[in-house]
Design goal:
The structure holds 3 protein chains of 3 kinds. By secondary structure, chain A is of the alpha/beta class. Helix content of chain A is 48%, strand content 28%. Chain A has one domain: Transcription Regulator spoIIAA, CATH 3.30.750.24. Chain A has a 3-stranded parallel β-sheet with strand order 1-2-3. In chain A, helix 1 links the parallel strand 1 and strand 2. Chain A is globular and about 30 Å long. Chain B is α/β, with parallel strands linked by helices. Chain B has one domain: Response regulator (Rossmann fold). In chain B, 44% of the residues lie in helices and 24% in strands. In chain C, strand 21 and strand 22 form a beta hairpin. By secondary structure, chain C is α+β, with helices and mostly antiparallel strands. Chain C is flat. Chain C contains 22 helices and 22 strands. The chains are: A alpha/beta, B alpha/beta, C alpha+beta. Chains in contact: A-B, A-C, B-C. Chains B and C meet through helix 1, strand 4, strand 5 and helix 5 of B and helix 1, helix 2, helix 3 and helix 7 of C.
Chain lengths: 81, 124, 705
């Protein structure tokens, strides 16, 4: 899955629905953030939750294309990136 | 149209001062004279595909005051930050603003630097 | 903002506003009950004020501020509308107009403005807000000059779940925080994050526990949270002392306690049980409290009490704080000292007044005294900080030391929230460390030895602090082998400290432990050697005007009790007279005041003058001679003798008279005189005379030489 621009609480519901849909269909999910400029806590939380669920269901989630700005934001949210 | 900061104040002096101060941030600034004017202009902008990044609003304005503006704005936009412009003497308006859904405040009169610092807290 | 463009915009705007105001104010006379009209006028003044401030028209800003205040009272109905008011408002507008638009400077302008201001203020009545000029001017930014040293802050943040609906992204705040320095530890608690399918992505579920390393000061860190601090749980704490390089410390100082830990501390459950329960909790995902009750380990009430205790601890942590330079507190204390002195002077004057007037004068003075005393207590309480962090610092030290010596030791901390004067806390660390080291090295036995004796395998060291009778006590208790008194006696005889045929009391033998160069350890340990330092510990504590004692039961353990004053700034003093001079002896050191018979006095070669006090000869010191003062009494049996004690040694001080007893505020005299060690400071008495304060500990030392 590929996203772009900003992912924030303003559009998180849409992103959430998309990710959940794909997650249920596939055993492996790649989330590409190469074109994402900015995220907020709502997206970081979503990644945390989806990661936890993946471990439970023995699925694989990969996040790629994380810029250094996003890396900092993920780390502040308690994600190991 | 990209991101827009909306400045809402009945005083043109304040509106222009804010616009000049925010030039350095590179974000486009739009002006509105009161709460109703702002709601109308915000609708125009979002209809045209633009995004409101931040509202900076005075409290005491004719037609629609700042508190009512925030309440109305929150009905259509839950998550965009709103910073209220207030004076030292109006401490309780900060509280009222927050109850209505405001995100922060700026005390008038302010220096350009103070304004930019506050804006940077909400627009990255 | 002095932009010329802005000035022009402001002029246009104010022309319009003033035009509207003029016509509205005229209509006001007829329609004073027209709410809309009144609100409109108020808003015009308000806008005019705001714009003039931004445009840099400061005199107009200040003036319209007064106008706005006045009209606020009209709006609230406090001031009625009349011709006089409208005249005043219209004249005010005239002045504003001339100030903004007149090309030529009117030399009368400031006078007119002053007249108008006076009229405005008198109109608002005497109770009106006469704000200071500084408060009306654009906010002056205070720049706190941060020191360049690194500081550590612990920030715990729990945002409200609906924080996003206030347009606030917690992550932006944390990003701003991270820009202040380096985030050393970032513990993100994800336990509240719901299942992926159940979560509402618009809510905030995470909480943070962060250690920030920064060169900025507290205000700067607090500033990051300015817009969220009111309605979210944000706690910021300076934890620099726990992160200083000398004390590596293990992790962070826990200010919040887990329920299980509290239950163990309260003796409700055993720590072994706790471990088991925690394991259970991980599996079952139940609350600790529920498990404890289910297993019958504690009653619901006990759990409830523990939860309350937990809350209490937590609240303590969340108390908001202001950091001030401790030098400012010292200054306050010093000024308070001056007030006390001033009051004493007034009391003296009252004593000399005729009875009728003296009575009412004294009554007034007494209530002033009460306030001063309360004031003093408040300042004291500001200087007080809990001993907890100091105790916690020893955790790591104890673990390492015990490990090095191959011993197994558990630390128990009690009374961590007991507060002591900041200065005392700073100076108590070393003596404490020493005594703890002694307990670990000499007191607590290795595990195999303990098992043989039928004791629990691991030893327990308890650090306990508490208040009692205006003093603070710190106990260091171990359940080790205790002090072998017969060995102490043997050694003391060998060292010639006591004679072989002397039957020494337990107390006497224990006090010998504090003699320089005394040790009973059979082998020289790595850490605590041959008693080196025990005498130093005692000296350090006495310099804090404290005392130390040891209690022991052979085979069962040892208790070291350190007694400290609540504060170093004030002492209870005994005022004594020698000739025309007054000196002060700290009451803490005084054991008694006596008169002697001629027969009880003798001189001994090499020992000087001795007097017999309760069957024991003690040295007599003529205070007058020592300080070069002319004493009234020549012979000791005519004079009064104050018996003081220091280092377990008693000394008689010869004085002329006892004057009284009072609290004295110590003023440091370092700057004035380089004194003998026998003086610790000075104070100013009610009549303005300076009285020197005797340092008994220093005095005894001086005489030993």
């Amino acid at each position: 899955m590929k996203f772009e621009k900003d992912i924030t609480v303003k559009n998180i519901k849409k992103i959430y629905d998309e990710i959940v849909k794909e997650f249920e269909k596939n055993d492996e999910l790649i989330i590409d953030l190469t074109d994402v400029k900015r995220i907020d806590l709502s997206f970081a939380q979503l990644i945390l939750a989806v990661g936890k669920k993946a471990r439970e269901l023995k699925k694989v989630i990969r996040v790629k294309g994380v810029s250094s700005e996003l890396k900092l934001l993920f780390r502040l949210s308690g994600l190991k990136v | 149209m990209g991101k827009v900061i909306m400045v809402i104040d009945d005083s043109p002096t304040i509106r222009v001062s804010v616009e000049i101060a925010l030039k350095s941030t590179g974000v486009e600034v739009k002006q509105a004279e009161n709460g109703q004017d702002a709601l109308d202009k915000i609708k125009e902008i979002t209809d045209a595909g633009g995004e409101i990044a931040l509202c900076i609003s005075d409290i005491n304005m004719p037609v629609m005051n700042g508190i009512d503006f925030i309440k109305e704005f929150r009905k259509v936009d839950k998550f965009t930050p709103v910073v209220v412009l207030t004076t030292e003497a109006e401490k309780e308006t900060i509280q009222k603003g927050k109850e209505a859904g405001a995100s922060g405040w700026i005390i008038k009169p302010f220096q350009a630097e103070d304004l930019v610092n506050v804006v940077k807290r909400f627009v990255k | 903002m002095g932009d010329s463009g802005i000035a022009e915009i402001f002029m246009n705007e104010s022309r319009e506003i003033i035009g509207n105001l003029e016509s509205d104010i005229v209509s006001l006379e007829e329609r004073s009950d027209d709410e809309e009209l009144v609100n409109g006028i108020f808003r015009y003044f308000h806008t005019l004020k705001g714009s003039s401030g931004i445009a840099g028209f400061n005199t107009i800003y200040e003036f319209t501020h007064d106008l706005e205040n006045l009209f606020d009272k009209v709006r609230s109905g406090e001031i009625g509308v009349c011709a006089e008011l409208t005249d005043l408002l219209l004249s005010s507008l005239d002045w504003i107009k001339s100030e903004i638009f007149d090309e030529e400077v009117d030399e009368n302008s400031s006078r007119i403005r002053e007249d108008l201001t006076v009229r405005l203020k008198s109109y608002m009545g005497t109770s009106s807000v006469t704000q200071k000029k500084g408060e009306e001017l654009p906010e002056q930014r205070v720049h706190y000059s941060g020191t360049e040293t690194e500081k550590f802050f612990r920030i715990t943040a729990k945002f409200r779940e609906d924080i996003f609906t206030f347009g606030i992204d917690p992550l932006m705040i944390l990003e701003d925080l991270s820009l202040l320095g380096e985030i050393e530890i970032n513990k993100v608690n994800k336990s509240s994050l719901p299942d992926l399918f159940d979560m509402d992505p618009h809510n905030c579920y995470l909480t943070w526990d962060i250690i920030l390393k920064t060169e900025h000061d507290f205000e700067k860190v607090r500033d990051v949270f300015i817009f969220v601090s009111d309605d979210n749980d944000i706690a910021i704490e300076d934890v620099t002392s726990e992160h200083s390089p000398e004390v590596p410390g293990d992790g962070t100082y826990k200010t919040e306690k887990k329920l299980g830990e509290i239950l163990v501390d309260q003796g409700v459950i055993r720590s072994e049980d706790l471990e088991e329960i925690v394991k259970l909790q991980e599996n079952r995902n139940e609350k600790i409290g529920d498990i404890v009750v289910k297993k019958g380990l504690a009653s619901t009430k006990q759990v409830h009490d523990a939860l309350q205790e937990q809350d209490r601890i937590k609240k303590k942590v969340e108390v908001s704080t202001v950091r001030v330079d401790s030098g400012k507190l010292d200054n306050l204390m010093n000024l308070l000292g001056e007030i006390v002195i001033g009051q004493a002077a007034l009391h003296r004057i009252a004593d000399e007044m005729e009875e009728q007037r003296a009575f009412s004068f004294k009554n007034a003075l007494y209530s002033l005294d009460r306030v001063t005393r309360e004031f003093q207590e408040q300042i004291m309480s500001i200087r007080m900080i809990p001993i907890g962090p100091t105790f916690e610092q020893f955790k790591r030290f104890i673990r390492d030391t015990a490990h090095n010596l191959g011993k197994d030791i558990k630390l128990k901390i009690e009374g961590a929230d007991t507060e002591l004067d900041k200065t005392v806390i700073e100076k108590i660390g070393d003596p404490l460390k020493h005594m703890i080291r002694n307990s670990i090295d000499h007191g607590i036995e290795p595990s195999d030895e303990r098992v043989k004796k039928g004791k629990p395998e691991s030893g327990t060291l308890t650090l306990k602090a508490y208040h009692q009778e205006g003093n603070v006590y710190i106990d260091i208790v171990d359940d080790g082998r205790g002090v072998n008194l017969s060995k102490v006696r043997e050694k003391a005889i060998a060292k010639g400290l006591i004679s072989p045929d002397e039957s020494s009391s337990r107390e006497k033998l224990l006090s010998i432990l504090f003699n320089p160069g005394f040790s009973t350890a059979e082998q020289v340990g790595d850490l605590s050697g041959r008693g080196v330092g025990m005498d130093v510990v005692k000296t350090n504590i006495e310099e804090l005007r404290g005392a130390i004692e040891i209690k022991t039961n052979e085979g069962e353990g040892t208790l070291v009790r350190i007694k400290l004053p609540l504060t170093l700034a004030i002492i209870e003093g005994m005022l004594i007279g020698i000739g025309n001079s007054i000196l002060i002896i700290p009451l803490l050191s005084v054991t008694e005041t006596i008169q002697i018979k001629k027969d009880d006095y003798k001189t001994v070669e090499g020992k000087g003058e001795l007097i017999l006090v309760r069957g024991e000869y003690v040295s007599l010191i003529r205070l007058g001679e020592l300080f070069g003062l002319e004493a009234a009494c020549e012979d000791p049996w005519d004079a009064l003798i104050v018996i003081v004690e220091s280092d377990g040694k008693r000394v008689g001080l010869m004085i002329d008279e006892l004057i009284g007893q009072q609290q004295v505020v110590i003023k440091s005299i370092e700057n004035h005189i380089t004194l003998s060690r026998a003086l610790s400071g000075a104070t100013i008495l009610g009549d303005g005379r300076v009285a020197l304060i005797i340092d008994i500990h220093g005095l005894v030392e001086e005489i030993r030489k």
